[in-house]
Amino acid sequence: MRVLVVEDSPKTASLLKRGLEEEGYAVDVAASGKDAVWMAAEYPNDAIVLDVGLPDLDGFEVCRQIREGGTWSPILMLTALDAVHDRVRGLDVGADDYLTKPFAFTELTARLRALIRRGAAERPAVLAAGDLTLDPSTRVVRRGDIAIDLTAKEFSLLEFFLRHPGEVLTRMRLIEHVWDFAYDGGSNVVDVYVKYLREKIDRPFGANSIRTVRGAGYRLDAG
Q: What are phi and psi of 150, to 5 degrees?
């Protein structure tokens, strides 16, 4: 198993490299964000250990660029930042797990093993269907170059559609994932919000991306 360690501290990088090699991993080290982006694209890695505090690009930007480049190796982010918004930001730009310094090496290796078992499934940071895009980290929705203002619930509904392109989603499934199991309103709330979405993301642009599947629910066209 090959692991890319992205760490600008020579001492920390050396400790991680030696410890992971003792666990049987082949380890490459990148000391800067730019090197990390290049190495992630050039060499196949089973996992990437990515420090946030880098001298050029921070780890969030490195993660975003790695994902935009089409590399889906599982990423474990390391940082001294422990605020909730930093953890959320890391996950939103495409990281798979987050470990705050100082950490136990045994926990790091356990998390790596779990990530490697999961594999390199495609998890784009920005969701898209044709020229319609949604960025969960910035909460920006665009049709082409035009930004679209959505309410929080409209955003959540569109995000669920974009995570399941081409699938027929029943009204009940949409309620369970976008509202919650305890929601006791009528199922027509989905129809109402789909109408709101169409008025914002489709009709002004002459598009028809959210289609009604008679007797079943709705489907977002992937193209």
A: -120, 150
